[in-house]
Amino acid sequence: MRKVVSLMLSLVLTASLLTGCSDNKTSSNGEVIVYNWGEYIDPEVITQFEEETGIKVIYDEFETNEIMYPKVEAGASQYDVICPSDYMISKMIENDLLQEIDFSKLSNIDQIGSQYMEMSKEFDPENKYSVPYCWGTVGILYNKTMVSSAPTKWADLWNEEYKDNILMQDSVRDAFMVAQKMLGYSMNSTDKDELEQCKNKLIEQKPLVQAYVVDQVRDKMIGNEAAIGVIYSGEAIYTQRENEDLEFVIPEEGTNVWIDSWVIPKNAPNYENALKWIDFMLKPEIALKNFDYITYGTPNDGAKALMDEDLQNNEIAFPDLTKHKGLETYVYLGEDADELYNDLWKDVKSE
Known about the structure:
Blueprint lengths: L1 H19 L10 E7 L5 H11 L2 E7 L2 H10 L6 E2 L3 H9 L19 H7 L10 E13 L22 E4 L2 H12 L8 H14 L3 E5 L2 H7 L5 E5 H10 L3 E4 L7 E6 L8 H11 L2 H11 L6 H6 L2 H4 L22 H16 L1
Parallel strand pairs: 1-2, 1-3, 5-6, 5-7
Antiparallel strand pairs: 4-7, 4-8, 4-9
């Protein structure tokens, strides 16, 4: 049901984006044009924002950073606020696609934990361009009734026992991260020899893979259609609510710790309304409402304080990162490295 509601919301609001972008008189306070991941907000929060501010929300969705970026770069559609991931924010800063955020107009910015602002400096060194929205890890989701023993490392995704029961992310950086960590390399490597080895490992794994997917990992695992898969931590929490046989683990070789953040593009037509949107999302009760709906970890300390104790101590939503080694955040590697990764990924997919 949640997926159907989200799809209907996306279709209606995307239609509005195509027909109403040029009209800023749709309400007393204009509009804000938002570009966000699919199923990454409680639709009721959008309604609440409109009711409380008088600002009309025009909402569009993307599935991956790589789909989002060229659309923003081309400037064909003007957005006021976007929610990219860490390394893509770095790329957008480098290519002068973002404008600085006026933090003096964010009355709720103090709700973001200082550790998340510090983490953000890896891709936004001076904390000028981004405000954390969600964070988490990437790990292995498995069905404990469909595996002979609980997986503990990325290498378990090469186990022939799980042939046709393995789900991999259909995302170049996430797919290569699995191979890189398995081989002991940095997930931000630009070494051609290392990346060639990773490509070969992914090709070696390919006959075992049931599918390369993104959001569908969640649905397939809930429906017992696969035994094991690569998944974002927030999705793992949701799947466990739907299927009690599912477990999540951060592999021992290490993984990606990611942050998705709100940014304002250079060509945003409604800058002030973008600030109001971001500030609204920073309210603890709103951040909690979004967490309850999307189940991704929130960097909002105020929202966390409102949660039940069992959620506050949930190791998937709020893992103790000091217990794990090999943790990294993606960084932008430059155009040449992007091209290299994409070419090698094409080789994997074409085999």
